[in-house]
Amino acid sequence: MDLIQDLNWRYATKSYSNKKISNEKLDFILEATNLSASSVGLQPYRILSIDNAELKTKLGANSFNKQIAQSSHLLVFAAYNKVTTQHVRDLVKLTADKQGVTIESLDGLFTAADTHFKSRSDEENKLWAERQTYIALGTALIAAANAKVDATPMEGFDAELFDELLGLKERDLHSVVILSLGYRDEATDYLANRPKVRIPVEEMVTKIS
Protein backbone atom coordinates (compact mmCIF):
# COMPACT_ATOMS: atom_id res chain seq x y z
CA MET A 1 0.00 0.00 0.00
CA ASP A 2 3.04 2.30 0.01
CA LEU A 3 2.18 3.16 -3.59
CA ILE A 4 -1.07 4.78 -2.45
CA GLN A 5 0.93 6.96 -0.07
CA ASP A 6 3.29 7.90 -2.91
CA LEU A 7 0.37 8.88 -5.15
CA ASN A 8 -1.24 10.92 -2.38
CA TRP A 9 2.09 12.70 -1.94
CA ARG A 10 2.49 13.67 -5.60
CA TYR A 11 0.84 16.64 -7.28
CA ALA A 12 1.46 18.80 -10.33
CA THR A 13 4.28 20.89 -8.90
CA LYS A 14 4.00 24.58 -9.73
CA SER A 15 7.37 25.84 -8.51
CA TYR A 16 10.71 24.05 -8.25
CA SER A 17 13.75 24.59 -6.06
CA ASN A 18 17.26 24.49 -7.55
CA LYS A 19 17.98 21.05 -6.09
CA LYS A 20 19.11 18.54 -8.72
CA ILE A 21 17.92 14.97 -9.09
CA SER A 22 20.61 12.35 -8.57
CA ASN A 23 21.63 10.27 -11.56
CA GLU A 24 20.47 7.19 -9.67
CA LYS A 25 16.92 8.50 -9.25
CA LEU A 26 16.76 9.78 -12.82
CA ASP A 27 17.88 6.42 -14.18
CA PHE A 28 15.29 4.67 -12.00
CA ILE A 29 12.50 6.83 -13.44
CA LEU A 30 13.72 6.33 -17.01
CA GLU A 31 14.10 2.56 -16.63
CA ALA A 32 10.62 2.27 -15.12
CA THR A 33 9.21 4.34 -17.98
CA ASN A 34 10.92 2.11 -20.53
CA LEU A 35 9.10 -0.85 -18.95
CA SER A 36 5.69 0.73 -19.57
CA ALA A 37 2.91 -1.26 -21.16
CA SER A 38 2.98 -0.81 -24.93
CA SER A 39 0.63 -2.17 -27.58
CA VAL A 40 2.35 -4.96 -29.54
CA GLY A 41 5.46 -3.97 -27.56
CA LEU A 42 6.32 -1.49 -30.32
CA GLN A 43 7.00 1.57 -28.11
CA PRO A 44 6.25 4.02 -30.96
CA TYR A 45 7.91 6.97 -29.27
CA ARG A 46 11.21 8.14 -27.86
CA ILE A 47 12.03 10.08 -24.69
CA LEU A 48 14.51 12.92 -24.46
CA SER A 49 15.96 13.72 -21.02
CA ILE A 50 17.21 17.30 -20.84
CA ASP A 51 19.21 18.89 -18.04
CA ASN A 52 20.92 21.65 -20.03
CA ALA A 53 19.77 24.89 -18.37
CA GLU A 54 20.21 27.06 -21.47
CA LEU A 55 18.24 24.65 -23.64
CA LYS A 56 15.44 24.38 -21.08
CA THR A 57 15.16 28.17 -21.00
CA LYS A 58 14.89 28.31 -24.80
CA LEU A 59 12.28 25.55 -24.84
CA GLY A 60 10.16 27.40 -22.31
CA ALA A 61 10.34 30.75 -24.12
CA ASN A 62 6.82 30.61 -25.58
CA SER A 63 5.17 28.90 -22.63
CA PHE A 64 3.51 30.03 -19.42
CA ASN A 65 4.91 26.95 -17.72
CA LYS A 66 7.92 28.17 -15.73
CA GLN A 67 8.48 24.56 -14.65
CA ILE A 68 10.21 23.91 -17.99
CA ALA A 69 13.15 26.17 -17.14
CA GLN A 70 13.02 25.56 -13.38
CA SER A 71 13.11 21.78 -13.54
CA SER A 72 16.11 19.69 -12.66
CA HIS A 73 15.39 17.58 -15.74
CA LEU A 74 12.81 17.81 -18.49
CA LEU A 75 11.48 14.70 -20.21
CA VAL A 76 10.07 15.12 -23.71
CA PHE A 77 7.85 12.33 -25.01
CA ALA A 78 8.06 12.31 -28.82
CA ALA A 79 5.90 10.00 -30.94
CA TYR A 80 6.58 8.50 -34.36
CA ASN A 81 5.18 10.50 -37.27
CA LYS A 82 4.25 7.20 -38.91
CA VAL A 83 4.60 3.49 -38.26
CA THR A 84 6.59 1.62 -40.90
CA THR A 85 7.35 -1.97 -41.84
CA GLN A 86 10.91 -1.34 -40.63
CA HIS A 87 9.61 -0.50 -37.16
CA VAL A 88 7.85 -3.88 -37.08
CA ARG A 89 10.96 -5.67 -38.38
CA ASP A 90 13.05 -4.05 -35.64
CA LEU A 91 10.54 -5.20 -33.02
CA VAL A 92 10.62 -8.78 -34.32
CA LYS A 93 14.43 -8.85 -34.33
CA LEU A 94 14.60 -7.44 -30.80
CA THR A 95 12.02 -9.97 -29.61
CA ALA A 96 13.96 -12.84 -31.17
CA ASP A 97 17.22 -11.66 -29.58
CA LYS A 98 15.71 -11.13 -26.12
CA GLN A 99 13.67 -14.34 -26.05
CA GLY A 100 16.27 -16.58 -27.70
CA VAL A 101 14.08 -17.66 -30.59
CA THR A 102 14.46 -17.46 -34.36
CA ILE A 103 13.11 -14.59 -36.39
CA GLU A 104 11.29 -17.14 -38.54
CA SER A 105 9.34 -18.36 -35.51
CA LEU A 106 7.92 -14.86 -35.17
CA ASP A 107 6.59 -14.63 -38.72
CA GLY A 108 3.04 -14.63 -37.36
CA LEU A 109 3.78 -11.63 -35.14
CA PHE A 110 5.39 -9.76 -38.01
CA THR A 111 2.58 -10.44 -40.47
CA ALA A 112 -0.19 -9.59 -38.02
CA ALA A 113 1.41 -6.35 -36.83
CA ASP A 114 2.56 -5.18 -40.26
CA THR A 115 -0.85 -5.92 -41.81
CA HIS A 116 -2.61 -4.10 -38.98
CA PHE A 117 -0.60 -0.89 -39.32
CA LYS A 118 -0.78 -0.95 -43.13
CA SER A 119 -4.56 -1.23 -42.93
CA ARG A 120 -4.72 2.20 -41.28
CA SER A 121 -3.72 5.62 -42.54
CA ASP A 122 -0.51 7.34 -41.45
CA GLU A 123 -2.65 9.82 -39.51
CA GLU A 124 -4.43 7.03 -37.62
CA ASN A 125 -1.10 5.42 -36.73
CA LYS A 126 0.30 8.80 -35.71
CA LEU A 127 -2.60 9.39 -33.33
CA TRP A 128 -2.20 5.87 -31.96
CA ALA A 129 1.50 6.52 -31.32
CA GLU A 130 0.62 9.73 -29.48
CA ARG A 131 -1.80 7.87 -27.22
CA GLN A 132 0.91 5.35 -26.43
CA THR A 133 3.12 8.13 -25.06
CA TYR A 134 0.54 8.86 -22.38
CA ILE A 135 0.84 5.32 -21.05
CA ALA A 136 4.57 5.92 -20.66
CA LEU A 137 3.88 9.32 -19.08
CA GLY A 138 1.67 7.67 -16.47
CA THR A 139 4.42 5.20 -15.60
CA ALA A 140 6.94 8.04 -15.32
CA LEU A 141 4.65 9.92 -12.92
CA ILE A 142 4.23 6.86 -10.71
CA ALA A 143 7.97 6.10 -10.76
CA ALA A 144 8.80 9.70 -9.86
CA ALA A 145 6.37 9.62 -6.94
CA ASN A 146 7.90 6.35 -5.75
CA ALA A 147 11.36 7.97 -5.87
CA LYS A 148 10.01 11.07 -4.06
CA VAL A 149 10.80 13.24 -7.06
CA ASP A 150 8.29 15.95 -7.93
CA ALA A 151 6.87 16.10 -11.43
CA THR A 152 4.60 18.19 -13.63
CA PRO A 153 3.03 16.80 -16.82
CA MET A 154 2.40 19.50 -19.44
CA GLU A 155 0.71 19.79 -22.81
CA GLY A 156 0.73 23.59 -22.99
CA PHE A 157 4.08 24.07 -24.70
CA ASP A 158 5.26 25.22 -28.11
CA ALA A 159 5.51 21.88 -29.91
CA GLU A 160 6.90 23.41 -33.10
CA LEU A 161 9.67 25.10 -31.13
CA PHE A 162 10.48 21.86 -29.30
CA ASP A 163 10.56 19.90 -32.55
CA GLU A 164 12.90 22.44 -34.12
CA LEU A 165 15.32 22.89 -31.22
CA LEU A 166 15.51 19.17 -30.51
CA GLY A 167 15.84 18.10 -34.15
CA LEU A 168 12.80 15.85 -33.92
CA LYS A 169 11.66 16.28 -37.52
CA GLU A 170 14.95 14.83 -38.72
CA ARG A 171 14.25 11.76 -36.57
CA ASP A 172 10.68 11.46 -37.92
CA LEU A 173 9.32 12.28 -34.45
CA HIS A 174 7.13 15.00 -32.96
CA SER A 175 6.76 16.16 -29.37
CA VAL A 176 3.49 15.17 -27.68
CA VAL A 177 3.74 15.77 -23.95
CA ILE A 178 6.47 16.83 -21.52
CA LEU A 179 7.27 16.11 -17.89
CA SER A 180 9.33 18.33 -15.63
CA LEU A 181 11.20 16.65 -12.77
CA GLY A 182 12.73 18.17 -9.67
CA TYR A 183 11.91 19.14 -6.11
CA ARG A 184 9.11 21.40 -4.94
CA ASP A 185 9.86 24.84 -3.56
CA GLU A 186 7.44 24.94 -0.65
CA ALA A 187 8.04 28.66 -0.09
CA THR A 188 6.74 29.65 -3.52
CA ASP A 189 4.45 26.76 -4.53
CA TYR A 190 0.93 27.48 -3.29
CA LEU A 191 -0.10 23.85 -3.78
CA ALA A 192 2.81 22.28 -1.91
CA ASN A 193 1.03 21.78 1.40
CA ARG A 194 -2.58 21.53 0.30
CA PRO A 195 -4.48 18.24 0.56
CA LYS A 196 -4.94 16.25 -2.64
CA VAL A 197 -8.39 16.61 -4.16
CA ARG A 198 -9.97 13.62 -5.90
CA ILE A 199 -13.53 12.33 -6.06
CA PRO A 200 -14.26 9.25 -3.89
CA VAL A 201 -13.27 5.92 -5.44
CA GLU A 202 -16.89 4.81 -5.14
CA GLU A 203 -17.93 7.67 -7.40
CA MET A 204 -15.15 7.06 -9.90
CA VAL A 205 -15.52 3.30 -10.18
CA THR A 206 -18.53 1.21 -11.06
CA LYS A 207 -18.01 -2.41 -10.04
CA ILE A 208 -19.91 -4.90 -12.19
CA SER A 209 -20.16 -8.51 -11.00
Helix and strand layout, with pairings?
Layout: H1 2-9, H2 23-34, E1 45-50, H3 53-59, H4 67-70, E2 73-80, H5 85-99, H6 107-118, H7 122-146, E3 150-154, H8 159-165, E4 173-182, H9 201-204
Antiparallel strand pairs: 1-2, 2-4, 3-4
Describe this structure in words.
With 209 residues, this protein is of the alpha+beta class. The chain has a single domain, classed as NADH Oxidase (3-Layer(aba) Sandwich). Helices cover 45% and strands 14% of the residues. It is built from nine helices and four strands; from the N terminus they run ααβααβαααβαβα. Strands 1-2-4-3 form a four-stranded antiparallel sheet, with helices on both faces. α2 (23-34) crosses α7 (122-146). The mean pLDDT is 96. One of its GO terms (molecular function) is oxidoreductase activity. It comes from Avrilella dinanensis. Keywords: NADP, Oxidoreductase. It holds the Pfam family Nitroreductase.
